[in-house]
Amino acid sequence: MNRDEAFQLYKQMLLIRRFEERCAQIYVEGKIGGFLHLYIGQEAVGVGAISLLRPDDYFITSYRDHGYAIARGSDPRLLMAELCGKATGISLGKGGSMHFYDVPTGNFGGDGIVGGHLPVAAGMGYGIRLRGSDQVALCFFGDGAVNEGAFHEALNVSALWDLPVVYVIENNRYGMGTALDRASSVADLYQRGSAYGIPRREVNGMDLLAVRSVLGEAIDRARKEKRPTLIEAETYRYRGHSMSDPGKYRTKEEVEQMMKLDPIFVFGQRLMEQERFVQAELDAADQEAVAMVDECVRFADQSPWPTEETLYQDVYVRSPYVHMKSAEKDPAWKAAVREDNVPAKLPPFAVAARVEG
Amino acid sequence: MNRDEAFQLYKQMLLIRRFEERCAQIYVEGKIGGFLHLYIGQEAVGVGAISLLRPDDYFITSYRDHGYAIARGSDPRLLMAELCGKATGISLGKGGSMHFYDVPTGNFGGDGIVGGHLPVAAGMGYGIRLRGSDQVALCFFGDGAVNEGAFHEALNVSALWDLPVVYVIENNRYGMGTALDRASSVADLYQRGSAYGIPRREVNGMDLLAVRSVLGEAIDRARKEKRPTLIEAETYRYRGHSMSDPGKYRTKEEVEQMMKLDPIFVFGQRLMEQERFVQAELDAADQEAVAMVDECVRFADQSPWPTEETLYQDVYVRSPYVHMKSAEKDPAWKAAVREDNVPAKLPPFAVAARVEG
Amino acid sequence: MAILSMREALNQALREEMRRDPSVFLLGEEVGAYQGAYKITQGLLQEFGEWRVRDTPIAEEAIAGIAVGAAFIGLRPIAEMMTFNFSILALDQIVNHAAKYRYMSGGQIRCPLVLRGPSGAAAQVAAQHSQALESWYAHVPGLVVVMPSTARDAKGLLKSAIRDDNPVIFMENEVLYNLKGEVPDEEYHIPLGLGDVKREGRDVTLVAWSRQVVTALETAKRLAEEGIEAEVVDPRTLRPLDEDLIFDSVRKTGRCVVVEEGWPVAGFGAEIADRVQRECFDSLDAPILRVTSADVPMPYSKVLEKAYLPGPEKVVEAVKKVLYR
Amino acid sequence: MAILSMREALNQALREEMRRDPSVFLLGEEVGAYQGAYKITQGLLQEFGEWRVRDTPIAEEAIAGIAVGAAFIGLRPIAEMMTFNFSILALDQIVNHAAKYRYMSGGQIRCPLVLRGPSGAAAQVAAQHSQALESWYAHVPGLVVVMPSTARDAKGLLKSAIRDDNPVIFMENEVLYNLKGEVPDEEYHIPLGLGDVKREGRDVTLVAWSRQVVTALETAKRLAEEGIEAEVVDPRTLRPLDEDLIFDSVRKTGRCVVVEEGWPVAGFGAEIADRVQRECFDSLDAPILRVTSADVPMPYSKVLEKAYLPGPEKVVEAVKKVLYR
Ligand SMILES: Cc1ncc(C[n+]2csc(CCOP(=O)(O)OP(=O)(O)O)c2C)c(N)n1
Ligand SMILES: Cc1ncc(C[n+]2csc(CCOP(=O)(O)OP(=O)(O)O)c2C)c(N)n1
Ligand SMILES: [Mg+2]
Ligand SMILES: [Mg+2]
C-alpha cells in the first residue's frame, strides 16, 4: 500500500465516522426512523477488509452495515437518502439503515437476521466454485451471531467443500447488552473454527494494517486455494447497540479505555510518523469528510418521498414463465418489471475531493 | 456389575435383536407401516448407557428408538402393538416406530426431526438445574445430526450453563446413504466438543463394557458436577437406514467386517470366558427372547384397532383456563381430558423369565 | 382500578405468576440484565435470580427447545422471542415438538409453555422485523394462539396462558406496549378462547385483534359521525376461536369487515371470512371484506409504511362498500 | 405422447433444464450418490457431476441459504427438501431472505431458485412427516407456490419454475410420484399461475390441488353415478392464483367445495372461500364448504390416518350439503 492509498483509507474511515455521527444527530431530529446501528469504533475492520477486495468480489454483512458500503465506494448521498426513507435512497427507501445494497459493487449488504446471512455467504462461495471463477466472498457478522445454528451449518459446508469465503467475526464484546462470556461457552471465538478444521486467525480490529495483513492472507487463501477462513477481529462499538440503547451494561471506564485505541486516531498517527503526513493534511481530510456529509444530508433533504405506487414495485421479477393475465390481478405482479434496478450515478460531490472505493 | 446384572444386559440386547428381526419380518407382511429404522448392531450403546440411569433420570432419542425403550424395561408387547398401529400401543397407535414414549420410565423417546431433540434435552437439563435435583438427562442421536444447527445451539448452552446432559453421538458411519466424511468437515465427531469447551470422549460402541465405563464417568460428572459431556460411540447398523434402503452405498465386505464385532456375540463370549456362563445358558436366553417376541406379536395381532373417536383425543390438555364453550366446537378440545395417559400394565409374560429395566 | 400501560400489565402478570408458582421461569435474549429489549421483564432478574430469569445467547431454536424440554419434565417456561420475526428460527421446536408430543405419545406428555413477545410492525423497522405471522401459528393443531389488544386483556390472558397446560403462543405488539388502560387491582384472569365485544353497534361488524382493534375503534368513531354504528369484536384468542361471538354479531348486523395486520393471502381473516360465510350465509347482506396489510414485504420509508398498513381510511372505505354507500 | 410417472416426468424436467442451462444446479440430502430419497434425481449425478448435483449434510438452513446465495450471484439452484416437513428449519432463509431481498434492495437483487420436494402425507409416516404447509408459503409475498397434480403438469410447471427468475416453492407429493399420465414428447412448459379444469361439470365446483385433485376426480366419478356433474378446478399454482378460473366455474355452478390436505384453520382453502364469497356473492346458492384433513397432528395407525385425511366419502357428503340433498 503506497502513501496515497493509505491516505485514502484514512479518509474512508473518517468519512464513515462523520457520516454516522451525523446519522445519530438527524435520527434524534426524526429524519431517520426504525433501528439505527452505528459502526463507530469498528471502522478499521470494514475498511481494511474491503480495501483488499477485487471489484468482482462479493460481500454480505449484518444490519450494522453503513461502513462497508462507504468503504466500497457507494455514493454516501444515496445512503443518507436511504436512511431518510427517500425515493433516491440506494434501496429506493425500502430498506433503511439495516438494508444497504449496491449490487454493481458486489455489495449484497445488510441482513437483519442475526447469523442469517452466513449460509447465504456460503452459497456465494458455492456459486463461485461452480462457475470456476477466482472470486472471493467476504462475510461480516458479530460475536453474538456465532451462537446461531446458521453459523454452524455454514462453516461446516464451507470447510467440507472448500468454499472461497472469508468469515469475519467482528467481536465488539457484546451482542446487544450481553457480554461475550454470558453468551458463548468459549472465550476465543476464532477457536470455534476448530470444530470444522477451518483455518482461523485472531486480529486486532482497531488496527487497520493488522486487519489488512490477516485478511490479505485469508483472501489469498480463498482465491488461490479456494479455502475458507474464520477470522475474529477484536474491536469495539463506542455507541449503544442501536439508538435506543443507553449501554448501561458496560462502564464508562471500559468505553474510554477502548476509545484510546481509536482506529482512526491510531492510523492518523502512523500516517504522520511513517508516511510524513502533517496534522494539517489530516485536518483538511476531516473538513472534507464533514463537507461531504453536509452534502449527503442536503441531498437527502431535497430528495422526494417515494410515491405510493412504488409500494408494490420490486417484489417480483416480471417473467415470461408466469401467466400474467391471472398474476396481474395481484398489484405486485402488475408492477413487476423484467430488469434489475441499478443505483443512480450522481454528479461529483461539490467538495473538491472524492472518495474512491 | 455382578454376574446376574451382566446376564440381564445380555438378555436385553438379545431381546432387542430378536424383537427387531421380527419387526423386519412383519413389516414385509404389511403389519407395520411407514418408516421402520432398526437398531440392529447398535444395541450395546443404548443398553449400556441406559443400564447406568437411575429410575428418575430422563432420556430422549432419535427415531431409531426401539432399543432404548426395551432397555429401559418398557413392555415390548406395548411396543409391538404400537408398531402395528393398535389401540394397545404404548402411544395408543398414534406414534408408530419413530415415536416410542414411556414417561413413567423417563423415556421422552423418539423424535423424527434429525437434531430436533437436542435442544429439548438441554431443556431437560435446564429444568433439572432449576429444580435443584441431581437427575441426569441422556440424549441419543446419530452422526448425521451433528451438522444441524440444533446441535450447535444445544451444546453451547449446555456448556455455558453447566447442564447435566450427556450427549451420545451414535456414529454408525452413515446418515442415511451419506458417509460421515461426505457430511462432516472433521472426522472425529467428538472433537466438535472443542468448540464449546465441553468434556468429550470416544468409545467403542460395539463393546457394552466400554460403553458403560465411558458413560458411567459422564453420567457421574453430570450428576455430581452438573457438567455436560459429548460422547462419540463408534458403532454400526447392519440393516439399511430404513426398510426401504437397500444400502448400496457400502460394501458387503464392510458390513461383514463389522458383524464380526457383533456386540451381542462379543459380550456373550465374555460372559462365558469371565463369568462362567455356558453356551446352553446363552441359548436358553435366546429361546426365551424369541418366545417373548412371539408373545409380543400375538398380543399385537389380538389387539383392537383404535376407534375413530380417538383421532381427536390427546391433542390438548383440558384446562380450567380455557373457555370451553367456544373451545369445544373444536372436536380436539371436546375430547381433551385433564389427565395424562400412562402406559398399561400387562400381566406377566407367559414365558417364565422376565426382562427387568 | 389502576391505569397501566400494557407493558406494566404484562410485567405484573409475569411477576405475580412467578411469585405464585416456583416452576414458572423466563428465558430469552436480554430478558434479564438488560431488563428486556422492550422492558417487559423489568425487575424480574433482581427478584427471581438468573435461573428463573435467564439471558440466553442469540439462538432461537435453543430458546424454544429449552422451553419444550423443561415443560416436558414439569416446569412452566415462558420463552420470550425478542420479536416474533425471529420465532421463524424456532418454528420447528414449536410446531414439531411443543405442538405434537402430546399427540404422538398418546397423551403421555404435556408441554405447558408460553412463547411470547412482540409481533407485527413497530415503526420503520422494515421487512424482516415487521411480520404478523399469526395465521401460521393458528394453522397448527396443538397450539393456543393469543393476541391481546388492551392492558387489561393482556394481563388477564397472560396469567391464563401461564397457568394453562398447553403450549401457548402469546403474540404482543410493540405499538401497544405504551397503550394505557384500566387494570383491576384484584386477582383476575381472562379465559383463553373467550372473545370480547369492544364496542357495540348495529350496522356492521368489525372483527379485529391486537393492534388492529385500535384501528377498528378509531374507524368506528369516524363512522359514528356519519351515523354508522360499527360493532367491534375482538376474539382475543385466535385458537381456540370464540366464533359464536362473531356469528352473533354478524347475524345482527348482516355485514362484516375483518381488519388484520397480516398479509392478505391465507391470512387469519380468510379463516374468519370462511367461517362467517358458512355459518351466517343467510344473514349476510353483503360479501365479507378484509382490510389487511399490503401484499408486499414491509417497506422502510414512513410514507410507504403508512401505505402498507391497514388504517381507518381503508376500513371506512371497506365498510361503505359492504353498506353499499 | 409417452405415458410417464410423475417421478419420471420430474426427472426429465430436471435433466432437460440442467442440459439446457449450465447455471442450473441441484443440492440436497441424498440427491446425488443415493439417486434421491424418492429417486426424483436418478442418474443426474452421473451425468452432471458433484458440483451440479450436490449431496449435502443434514442441514436444511444451509441448503436453503446456499441456494439463496448462489441465486443472488446469478446461478439457478434447485434445492431439494427431502420432505417439506424439514423446510420448517429452512423457513427463515426462504421467508426472510429469498422472498425479501429483492424488495429490501429496491429491485437490485433477484433470487431465481426452486425449493422442491414432497409435501403432505405419505403412508403412515406420522405427525412430524405428514404436514401440508402450503398455506404458510402462499401467505408470503415474494414467493411463487406451485403444486402439480399430474405428470404432465409436474414437468411443464417444473420447467417454468426453473426458468422463472423468482423464488419458487415447488411442492410435490410422494403418493403422486408413481401416478402415470400422458406427457408430451416435445418441449413444453406450463405457465406459473395458470389453472386447469380437470373435469367439466355443471352442478358443483370442486377446487383441489396436488394429491386432492385425485380425490376430487374420484368423487366426481361417484357423484356422476347419482347424476351429479361436478367440475374439478385445479389451480396448479397457489401463488399467483388463477382465481378467474375458479370464479367462472362457481358462477356457472353456484356451488363450491374446496378439498385440501392441509389443516382446516387458516388453510389455503379458507383463502379460496374468502375470494369466492367476495367475488361470486350473488351467484352462490349455498355456502362454500371445505373438506380438509382433521384438525389434529397426523396419527400413525392406518385406521386413524384414513380418518384423518380427506377422502371421496367426505367430499360426497359436502357436495350433497351444498346441493341441499
Ligand atoms: C435471529 C435474530 N435474533 C435476534 C435479533 C435481535 N438482535 C439484533 S442485533 C442483536 C445483537 C447481535 O449482536 P452481535 O452479533 O454481536 O452483533 P453487533 O450488534 O454487536 O454488531 C440482536 C439480539 C435478530 N435481529 N435476529
Ligand atoms: C431435519 C431432518 N432432516 C432430514 C430428515 C430425513 N432423515 C431421517 S434420518 C436421516 C439420516 C440421519 O442420520 P444419522 O443422524 O446418522 O442417524 P442414523 O439414521 O444413522 O441413526 C435423514 C436425513 C429428518 N428426519 N429430519
Ligand atoms: Mg457484538
Ligand atoms: Mg448415522
Give the end-to-end Cα distance of chain A, rounded to a whole number of Å.
Answer: 14 Å
Strands of the largest sheet of chain A, in order across it? 2-1-3-4-8-7
User: Over all CA atoms, what is the radius of gyration of chain A?
Assistant: 20 Å
Tell me about the biggest sheet of chain A? 6 strands, parallel
- Count the DSSP helices of chain A: 12
Given the C-alpha coordinates, what overall shape of chain A results?
globular
Description:
The complex is a heterotetramer, with two copies of chain A (357 residues) and two copies of chain C (325 residues). Chain A is an alpha/beta fold and 357 residues long. Chain A has twelve helices and eight strands. In chain A, strands 2-1-3-4-8-7 form a six-stranded parallel beta sheet. Chain A has a two-stranded antiparallel ribbon with strand order 5-6. In chain A, helix 1 (3-28) runs antiparallel to helix 9, helix 4 crosses helix 10 (279-302) and helix 5 packs parallel to helix 6 (149-160). Chain A starts with a helix and ends in a 23-residue tail after the last helix. Residues 353-357 of chain A have low confidence and may be disordered. Chain C has 325 residues and is an alpha/beta fold. Chain C contains twelve helices and 14 strands. Chain C has helices at 6-20, 44-48, 60-72, 91-98, 101-104, 134-138, 151-163, 211-225, 243-253, 268-279, 302-308, 312-322, and strands at residues 2-5, 24-28, 53-55, 76-80, 114-118, 144-146, 168-172, 180-183, 196-199, 204-208, 230-234, 237-239, 256-259, 289-291. Chain C has a seven-stranded mixed beta sheet, with helices on both faces. In chain C, helix 2 links the parallel strand 2 (24-28) and strand 3. In chain C, 76% of the residues are buried. Chains in contact: A-B, A-C, A-D, B-C, B-D, C-D. At the A-D interface, strand 2, helix 5, helix 6 and helix 11 of A face helix 3, helix 4, helix 5, helix 7 and helix 9 of D.
